[in-house]
Structure formats: structure tokens, C-alpha cells
Write a structure and sequence with these properties.
26 helices; mainly alpha
């Protein structure tokens, strides 16, 4: 019995709060014991640091029933589960091996599905293939129903397809063009919002619009606008509209990022931990975000613990974007915990092994972390050497004027040159004053500037205090 409850507890611990709220909204359980268990699952899901034990006096078959009911109820509305089923059906149609049971299931799904279903587009395409299959084989049993479905929703299919093409083009503009004019930003924001808030569109198209709004708001540091979007998504995730564990984890991670940028660190930590409650292909990315939140909250030991535990995951990823991101934050975490020699050694070894990949993917993130720990260790000549060898300051300047630009490397390099006698105190002060002054008009950048100056202050207390006073920081 004890082992059975351990199994159930572990299963329940992996559930997300939005999953449980959905279960509560649709449950029609009659037995009081079932409702009692579900309510406790709900409490424990929302209070991970203060979980209550499950009642061992309740029969183990009741726990088995609730576990099965939860799995089946969530599976019915899981968009990823439905998509995988669609792929199986499509493969059977295209290989002429569809069974009578699969045909009936496809027909039933068509009758239940409207254009607002998450994967309506994919279902429509599979049904198109199936109609062709019926025509070629002169099969008339389901032809009329299938053809009626395709004709009835043809305009919806064309509309959603057209909108998705526009979403693709818009995302390409954001990624390639970089800075948008105010007019372009407003036009793009309006388009994305009109798609997301259109309940008549399929969920896949609507969620793609929400993702692009997230990118737009993040790129241009419009975090208050992002909050409005995510408050709307929060309500949607308590329904079946966008549900899957994968999408929920992504939502939690994005929400953690948003709260972090708004300096709401308790909320950022809450959603950061939710994002890594269950592992998926983006687990390392979500873990890095959580680590950043913990470091900003000065929870350095907690950050070191989660990063150390995740090193086996690092070895299993083929994504250098994730790998370099993890290494950069691991260096920062070691630095924050005073493990300077280990951080420097780790960074140096990684640079030797993956120099090409670092510059192809996330060179600024990596070198910012590496140079910061070198600065803390007072290895100023090494910083100057790295900066000159790889032309890091010049590389950094190429993004000047962008919403994300911060002269991190330029500042640490200048401070190192000041320590090494290559830059006078007056010239260093003038450089820092102008560089920082150009950035503090932005609320977000003001906070980042203050954080960087505070870090530099640990080695340059008098100079940095004078500079901060002059900048009113």
C-alpha cells in the first residue's frame, strides 16, 4: 500500500495546476473519496513546498481509478495526442492500409470537429487524403459524409492557411529586419492580436499568433503588454483549447521570463519551477531561465543545485544553442557561489573545445559570463587579451541601437584596461558616463545598467559609486 501511494504521489506531483483546474471543471465524480483525492491533488499541485500526504485509509483501487481517470480525461483533450493519432491515420491512408476501425474513428472525429479545433488544419488535410482514397477505390460508404465536411469547412481551411502564411512572413520580418518602425510594430501587433483573439479560428493558428506576440513584445521590451496576453492565456489553459503538457511548460517558462523582466521575482520563480516539473525536449532551456531567476534573487545555492543536477541532461542534448546557454549560466552560477577557479577552468575548456560553435550561436552570452568571472578573479590582462583576440567589443557594437543591446563586454574590457594602466581614470569615467547615459532612458535597460554597475563596483567601489551618483542610479 505504501509503495502504491508513492507511485500515485509521484504521478500527481507531475501534474500542472492548470491541468488539475481543468479536471475539476469537468469532473462528475460521485464518490466523496474520489473528490477528496482530486481536491488534494489540486492543493499539492499549487503548493509544491507544502504538500500534504494522501490518505492511506482509502482503498488503493480508488487511487488507481483516479489515476486512470485523470490520464484518460487529459488524453481526450491533449492536442499533441490527437496530432500523433492523425499522423498514424495519415500514414495508413497513404500506404493503403487503413483499417475499418481507423476509418470509423476518422469519420467520427470529423463529425465532432469544428474549425476552432486546435489541429483543424491537419485534420482537414488528412480527410482530403482520405476522400481521394475513397474515390480511387470507388468506396461510397463514407464518401458523402467526408465530402460534406470538406465542402462545409473549405472557406475556414483557406482562411486559416492564408493567415498562417501571413504569420510566417511577419515572423520572418521580425527575425531578419531587426528594428521595426513604430508604425510597423503597431500594425504587426494589431494583426497578431486579431488572430489570437478570434475564437472562430483553429487553436494552432491562434497559439502561433500568441507566440509571435511574445517574440514581438520580448524583442521590444513591451512586458506590460505581454502581461495582458499571458493573463488571457492563463484563462485559456484552464480549458481544453490549447492543452498539452508541452504547450503548458512553454507557457510557464515564458511567463517566468516575463515576470523576471518585470522584476517580479517571486512569480518568476514560481512559474520557472512549474516549467521544469516535467521533462521535455526544451527542459534545458527552461532550466536555464529558472537559473537566471534564482541568481537574480540571490538564491545562489539553489541555482547551483539545479544546474549541477542537470549536467547529465547537458551531455544528452545536440542543441548548441541550449548547450552554450547552459554553460554560460553554469559559469555565472559558479561565480555567484565563489567558485572562481572552477568557473574559469570550465569556461576555458569549453572555449577550447567549441570555439566555432560559440561564435555561430551565442557568443555574447558565453563571453559575458566568462569575462565577468575573470573580472571577479582580477584577471584583467586575460580579459584584454580575449577581447582583442576575438574583437569582442567591435562585435558587440554591431548590435548597438537594438532593444537588447548592452555594452557588457565593452565595460568590463574598459575597466580591465583602467586597472592595467591602459586607460586613464578620467577617460574611463567619461567613457562609462556617456555609455551608461545613453541607455538609462529605457526602464528595462536602467535596471540592467544598475546591475552591471553593481557588479563592477565589487572591484571598483569608489569609482563606480561616484559614477552611479552622477547618473542618479
Amino acid at each position: 500500500m505504501r509503495e502504491k501511494l508513492v507511485t500515485f504521489s509521484e504521478f500527481a506531483m507531475a501534474l500542472y495546476p492548470h491541468e488539475v483546474e481543468y479536471l475539476l471543471s469537468v469532473q462528475q465524480l460521485e464518490k466523496s473519496e474520489n473528490i477528496k483525492i482530486l481536491n488534494l491533488v489540486n492543493y499539492n499541485s499549487k503548493n509544491p513546498l507544502n504538500r500534504l500526504p494522501y490518505d492511506t485509509s482509502i482503498d488503493k483501487r480508488t487511487y488507481s481509478y483516479i489515476k486512470k481517470w485523470i490520464e484518460e480525461t487529459l488524453e481526450k483533450v491533449d492536442v499533441d495526442h490527437f496530432y500523433n493519432w492523425l499522423l498514424t491515420i495519415e500514414q495508413s491512408v497513404m500506404s493503403d492500409s487503413i483499417t475499418p476501425e481507423q476509418e470509423k474513428a476518422l469519420k467520427d472525429q470529423a463529425m465532432l470537429s469544428t474549425p476552432s479545433r486546435y489541429y483543424f488544419l491537419r485534420l482537414y488535410q488528412v480527410i482530403q487524403h482520405y476522400r481521394d482514397y475513397l474515390i480511387v477505390r470507388n468506396r461510397t460508404r463514407y464518401y458523402a459524409e467526408v465530402s460534406d465536411y470538406l465542402n462545409k469547412y473549405h472557406k475556414n481551411y483557406i482562411r486559416s492557411t492564408t493567415i498562417n502564411n501571413r504569420l510566417n512572413n511577419a515572423a520572418e520580418k521580425i527575425a531578419i529586419k531587426g528594428l521595426l518602425s513604430d508604425k510597423e510594430f503597431t500594425r504587426m501587433e494589431s494583426f497578431f492580436k486579431s488572430v489570437y483573439f478570434d475564437d472562430n479560428l483553429d487553436g494552432y493558428t491562434r497559439y502561433r499568433a500568441a507566440v509571435r506576440l511574445t517574440i514581438l513584445y520580448y524583442t521590444y521590451r513591451e512586458f506590460d503588454s505581454m502581461r495582458e496576453l499571458y493573463d488571457s492565456l492563463d484563462a485559456q489553459f484552464k480549458t481544453e483549447v490549447f492543452y498539452s503538457k508541452r504547450i503548458l511548460a512553454n507557457y510557464y517558462s515564458n511567463r517566468a521570463m516575463m515576470h523576471s523582466k518585470l522584476n517580479e521575482l517571486d512569480l518568476a520563480e514560481k512559474y520557472g519551477y512549474l516549467s521544469v516539473r516535467a521533462k521535455n525536449s526544451d527542459y534545458l532551456f527552461y532550466l536555464i531561465n529558472l537559473c537566471g531567476v534564482l541568481l537574480r534573487s540571490n538564491k545562489n545555492k539553489e541555482a547551483l543545485k539545479i544546474m549541477t543536477q542537470a549536467i547529465p541532461e547537458l551531455k544528452n542534448t545536440n542543441s548548441f544553442y541550449y548547450k552554450i546557454g547552459f554553460v554560460a549560466f553554469y559559469i555565472r552560477t559558479l561565480n555567484a557561489n565563489g567558485m572562481l577557479d572552477k568557473a574559469i577552468s570550465y569556461a576555458s575548456t569549453f572555449l577550447e573545445g567549441y570555439k566555432k560553435e560559440i561564435f555561430e550561436h551565442r557568443w555574447h552570452l558565453f563571453f559575458s559570463a566568462y569575462i565577468q568571472v575573470l573580472f571577479r578573479a582580477e584577471k584583467y590582462s586575460k580579459i584584454i587579451s580575449l577581447s582583442k583576440r576575438y574583437r569582442l567589443v567591435a562585435r558587440e557594437k554591431q548590435s548597438a541601437g537594438s532593444a537588447t543591446y548592452l555594452p557588457t563586454i565593452a565595460w568590463y574590457t574598459a575597466a580591465s584596461e583602467y586597472f592595467e594602466g591602459a586607460m586613464s581614470k578620467e577617460r574611463f569615467h567619461e567613457f562609462m558616463l556617456k555609455s551608461a547615459g545613453d541607455l538609462i532612458s529605457s526602464k528595462y535597460k536602467t535596471r540592467k545598467v544598475r546591475e552591471l554597475l553593481n557588479d563592477l563596483m565589487q572591484n571598483l567601489p569608489v569609482v563606480m559609486k561616484s559614477l552611479k551618483d552622477e547618473l542618479n542610479l
